[in-house]
Amino acid sequence: MADLSEKTGKGNTGKSARWKTLGIRALSGLVLMAICGIPIYFGGWIWAAFIVLVCARVIYEWVRMSDSAAGKLALALPIAGLLVVMGLAQFGHWQEALISTLFIGALATYERSKRGGGRGGGRGERGRGLWAGFGILYVLLPSLAMLWLRGDVVGFAAAGFAKFLFIVVVVIAADTWAYLGGSTIGGPKLVPKISPNKTWSGLVSGFVFGAAFGAFAAWVIGFSPAYGALLAVPIVVFAVAGDLLESMIKRHLKVKDAGGLIPGHGGILDRIDSLLLIVVVAAGALIVWPNLWPMV
User: Helices 159-185 and 11-42: crossing angle, nearest 10°?
Assistant: First the structure.
């Protein structure tokens, strides 16, 4: 979920800093899990409202890091769009919600393309309209996917709860053990031009423990642990891809973190970057192949 970064260092100082950072990350992660637990349990409107709150913050972070000359409209438009599409979806109008997402993306692209529309009337970074349009898709499509995957049925026995829990457990496990494995083992870098702290050892650790926790989650939920481990593999693949995508975006925009809200993690976007892509892929896969999830 968070940036699968492995901060390495030399000697005792590097190890001390690494474990100190791990403690901050772990504490932040536990707090976030406690906050997220209630809306995930209830689903429906409570879950929808929670997604809106979280993704409104993600929109703020996106606009802040991608558009240094953004005016009020650049922030108000995507947040209003988020409210509209989530409301449509929660009332069952999924097709209209998807069409609205594309329409809002086009509006945001147009708004961003206007020269001199930012603070102080200067050109700044204005004119790169595709960044605004991409930002709409980058946030609103995962918002809809998370809402659809969880569903409206309340409780631990709900199929939507099990699906979403499985994805989250695998992503958190892969993220945590990629950090631990890469920090402890080190070795060759994975993609140094995109994310210089990621290592092959971290990637392998993430796959191994993502699959292991997928098997465990499957056993708890009530289906084959072997199938759970198999199902975890593409989840880890797209979680890593989502993480690398955000790293590539931040590197291109020359920013270290999307925000500073969460100690040890940066912004909300830095924390859920791995989740944004996989929920869209998972929702699409389950629409095409409903039997992919073994407990229909």
Answer: 180
Q: Which two tokens stand for residue 129?
A: 């309209």
For the chain, what are the domain ranges? Answer: 1-43+154-296, 44-152
Burial of 91 (0-12, 13-18, 19+ CB in 10 A): exposed
Q: Which two tokens stand for residue 253?
A: 């925009």
Q: Is the pLDDT of residue 240 over 90?
A: yes
Considering the entire predicted model, what is its pTM?
A: 0.86
Distance of alpha carbon 84 from alpha carbon 56, whole angstroms? 12
Q: What are phi and psi of 155, to 5 degrees?
A: 110, 165
How far, in Å, CA of 82 to CA of 89, rounded?
11
What are phi and psi for residue 71, nearest 5 degrees? -95, -175
The model's pLDDT over 6-48, given as tens digits with 9 standing for 90+, comes to 444 444 444 455 555 666 666 666 676 778 889 999 999 999 9
